[in-house]
Write a structure and sequence with these properties.
- The chain has 482 residues and is an alpha/beta fold.
- The protein folds into 2 domains: 10-353, Methylmalonyl-CoA mutase (TIM Barrel); 416-482, Glutamate mutase, C-terminal domain (Alpha-Beta Complex), CATH 3.90.970.10.
- Helix content is 50%, strand content 9%.
- It contains 17 helices and 10 strands.
- The strands form 2 sheets. It has an 8-stranded parallel beta sheet. A two-stranded antiparallel sheet has the order 9-10.
- The structure holds ligand 8ZB.
- The site of ligand 8ZB has 11 residues, from loops.
Length: 482
């Protein structure tokens, strides 16, 4: 399969669509024309893209949880609870793992077992098996904009059913829902499957229906250097825009050093505008900060502190929204009460900081300059490798290790770069491997890691990386030796 970033032809799209809708019986419930008529009647205040756009204009940070249970009525009850008791601005429907793997037979079993035992036997909402009518029951039951959140390498059928079901936003992308989520799926395949999702979104757009799209920013969520996640986010934004997507939210997972986190969100927004403009696309862009995606402390009160720090990073960086963790993060799927608690802790911090500008000093502008330079090095190399085609470039860049995501399961990812924290907790490159950084940038990273090693009276080593991975769950940011 040869990748190219060009807009899918109508013939190619509708030929693929026949097979997509045949993957599970509920596919036949999707009638595109009827679905568009249904979407058009959704009240404006429930349209995801509109609420995001307003928040951008007003400089607000919206709050959004993750949540999903297998059966319709409990799922509705959960979402309503998060809306009222949790004060959520935006709602999710988190999809279960079987659906993410296109294992609909097993998802069906999960639904039946959940019914029989009156207990959640799946870790999310199986939207494909539930079908268009059930999705509409869910999306109609709430007052807020609602989004499909998942982690699905091939999300074509899920997108068809989700959009027909009244969701006005859809998460994911051909890189960000492959490399961190799959071991054996070629990047060419997921890029093509996500071009389908973006083309479907484009069709809605061309019929006057605005749908928000959100590439998954945090990738593996484990010490991902901002330049790596920013480069992937910009590439996915470009791929989406080519297919006709008009409203994009680019994302970033909190690293934990406030200056770096603020610089990362600012540079992510600037770079997305820069490259969309460079290729001639007109899109509305917003940002999302994910509260810490790595290991959490077991202690719920310590977890609240991690949640609060992520909220502060989101508020001070003026991210358009923040995805909220819960005090149950170390345990698994949260109760609705714990979920609402995470939201309320976040709400308090966001509103306390909403009028407080971040100190814009030399350290912040230097951090921004570094991230912007690094990210441009990567993206420009991707463009060069693809002879100006960003899809082809992305495939070749993963082969060459020019794009390289730390700790990813995919065998199509080099997995050679090593991140570690510097003395101040910012995520740097202990080993940049094949990332196409300038000598000046490589020297910057080396000096930062050496500064830490010296302070800790130890040599630079892989042990630092391991110590950093576990640090936050053990109550620190930097994994210092004991
Ligand atoms: C990559 C995202 C992982 C995060 C949360 C995990 C983790 C997964 C559900 C959920 C609430 C669910 N997550 N599934 N949170 N309800 N069904 O996604 O806990 O934080």
């Amino acid at each position: 399969m040869d990748s190219n970033s060009k807009r899918l032809s109508e013939d190619a799209f509708f030929a693929a669509r026949k097979e997509v809708l045949a993957q599970w019986p509920t596919g036949s419930e999707v009638d595109l024309k009827e679905a568009m008529e249904y979407q058009r009647k959704i009240p404006t205040e429930k349209r995801f893209s509109r609420k995001m756009k307003r928040a951008v204009e007003r400089g607000e940070t919206l709050i959004q949880p993750r949540a999903g249970v297998p059966l319709i009525e409990p799922h509705v009850e959960l979402l309503r609870y998060l809306e009222t008791e949790g004060e959520a601005d935006l709602l999710p429907t988190t999809i279960d793992s079987y659906t993410r793997q296109n294992r609909y037979q097993e998802a069906q079993k999960g639904i039946e077992e959940s019914q029989a035992r009156q207990k959640a036997m799946l870790n999310g909402f199986p939207a494909v098996n539930q079908g268009v009518g059930s999705c509409r029951r869910v999306t109609e039951a709430v007052k807020s904009p609602i989004q499909v959140r998942h982690g699905t390498p091939d999300a074509r059928l899920l997108a068809e059913i989700g959009l027909a079901g009244g969701f006005t936003s859809f998460e994911g992308g051909g890189i960000s829902y492959n490399i961190p989520y799959a071991k054996n799926v070629p990047i060419e395949k997921t890029i093509a499957d996500w071009q389908y999702v973006d083309r479907l979104t484009g069709l809605y757009e061309e019929n006057g229906i605005s749908i928000n799209r959100e590439p998954f920013g945090p990738l593996t969520g484990t010490l991902v250097p901002p330049c790596v996640s920013n480069a992937v986010a910009v590439i996915e934004a470009l791929l989406a825009a080519e297919q006709g997507v008009k409203n994009i939210t680019v994302g970033y997972g909190q690293c934990g050093n406030l200056t770096q986190d603020v610089a990362a969100i600012h540079s992510l927004l600037a770079l997305t505008h820069e490259y969309l403009g460079h290729f001639g696309y007109a899109c509305e862009v917003s940002t999302v900060l994910h509260q810490w995606m790595g290991g959490f402390p077991q202690d719920e009160f310590k977890a609240f502190s991690v949640i609060a720090w992520g909220s502060a990073a989101a508020a001070l960086s003026k991210a358009t929204k923040v995805i909220v963790k819960t005090p149950h993060e170390a345990m698994g799927v949260p109760t609705k009460e714990a979920n609402a608690q995470g939201l309320r802790a976040t709400r308090q911090m966001i509103s306390m900081l909403s009028d407080q500008p971040v100190e814009s000093g030399d350290t912040l502008s230097e951090e921004k300059r570094i991230i912007i330079e690094e990210t441009r090095c990567i993206i420009n190399k991707v463009i060069e490798l693809g002879d100006n085609d960003i899809a082809l470039g992305a495939v070749r860049a993963f082969e060459a290790g020019v794009l390289d995501v730390p700790f990813a399961p995919s065998r199509f990812n080099a997995g050679k770069i090593l991140p570690a924290r510097d003395h101040y907790g910012a995520v740097r490159l202990l080993d940049p491997a094949s990332l196409p950084l300038t000598d000046e940038l490589k020297a910057f990273h080396r000096a930062k890691i050496e500064e830490r090693a010296k302070a800790e009276k130890r040599a630079v080593s892989f042990q630092m990386v391991i110590d950093d991975i576990y640090a936050i769950s053990k109550g620190r940011l930097v994994g210092r030796p004991r």
